[in-house]
Amino acid sequence: MNVAILGVGTVGCEVANTLIKNKQVISARAGVEITPVIGVVKNLDKNRNVNIPLSDDLNAVIARDDIDVFVELMGGIDEPYNIISKILKNKKPVVTANKAMLAYHRYKLQNLAGDTHFGYEASVAGGIPIIKVLREGLSANHIQKIVGIMNGTSNYILTNMMQKGFHFDEILKKAQELGYAEADPTFDIGGFDAAHKLLILASIAYGVHGDPEDILIEGIENITLDDIYFANEFEFVIKLICVAKRNGNNVELRVHPALIDKNNMIAKVDGVMNGVSVFGDVVGETMYYGPGAGGKATASAVISDLIDIATNSSRPMLGYKKSLEGVNLKLIDSNDIRTKYYFRLKVEDNIGVLAKITNIMSQNNLSIDTFLQKPKKEDEDVATLFFITHTSLERDVKKVFSILEKESYIKAKPFMIRIES
């Protein structure tokens, strides 16, 4: 089986090199020899650690009759979508690791693919075979909930803030020096990378349509050591989590920092690792853990799709042939999310301030479960208050924050983290 690799960067090199290095075991599993015969690059002058022919003529490679499968590792959204569309129209199988493209174009690609194999295991959680888990291993289950840590950069930062007391800016800089974070880390720390992955999993689990703009996405950039202090006091950890949850005929999708009980399995996923918990109505909770990024982990997932193609292990791209539940499930508005909330408020340290805050909360359907005031240092002229609410509605929390922001006794922008049980 001849393979063309479109985009021979870190992952593309690992795919080619692993196919060559592990040729014997891959051939034994696939039943045929899988050979990388050409790689497409933009710059032929750049040195690459790979021993396959390279070309900068993408159209010529796509037109070759001797290519059996195309592996797309270019990155981007619209350009690779157009390229893959052209390949699928020629009835040639495709494997991709491109989560951003799938977040926007997965349903159009499914329609184009039809019975042509389209593999994308590498698009979510790197070396964790979570796509196969949902499409195959748990196919007898109604999926009740998915909770995942699916961005290693954010998880590395939060782990070091929790365990070693680093300030956010300090550990972000270290992550960049170690290669865990990009020079512009917005995509990772802002939650967008994780959101793309969540949308892909939600499509498999629930068949819901939606773009990143349709769901709640918040990043970790505003978390401070005050929040770390509170989390440690109450036996929580802070993680950037992805949540997909079914409520009746509605599906809730959200990506945000969350306070999680330290004893929860997902809370133990530290450093650059990823973890995904899936709750099925038959099997209960199952947990998947492993490296979520990097050339080797991603290449492992890409090659697993190539082996599926070689063995003709084909099924619909998103894993179902008709409506999963007999109804079309719909995304709920993020304002209708219900959960518990943690608030951090910087206020004047005066008599009556706490009463004013709790009065505003009670007038807007928020009730307090836990309250803590952090001891002041001698040089501080404001008090730091922490609250945990009972289960509340997102729109009520937003209304309370809009009121508090205008009050003169509030001395910094109020901050909130949702609590995931």
Automatic annotation (TrEMBL):
Pathway membership, UniProt: Amino-acid biosynthesis; L-threonine biosynthesis; L-threonine from L-aspartate: step 3/5; Amino-acid biosynthesis; L-methionine biosynthesis via de novo pathway; L-homoserine from L-aspartate: step 3/3
Location of the active site: K197
UniProt-listed Enzyme Commission number(s): 1.1.1.3
Superkingdom field: Bacteria
Residues that hold NADP(+) according to the record: L6, G7, V8, G9, T10, V11, G12, C13
UniProt cross-references to Pfam families, sorted A to Z: ACT, Homoserine_dh, NAD_binding_3
EC main group: oxidoreductase
Keywords: Amino-acid biosynthesis, Methionine biosynthesis, NADP, Oxidoreductase, Threonine biosynthesis
Name of the protein in question: Homoserine dehydrogenase
Protein's organism: Campylobacter sputorum subsp. sputorum
Upper lineage: Bacteria, Pseudomonadati, Campylobacterota, Epsilonproteobacteria, Campylobacterales
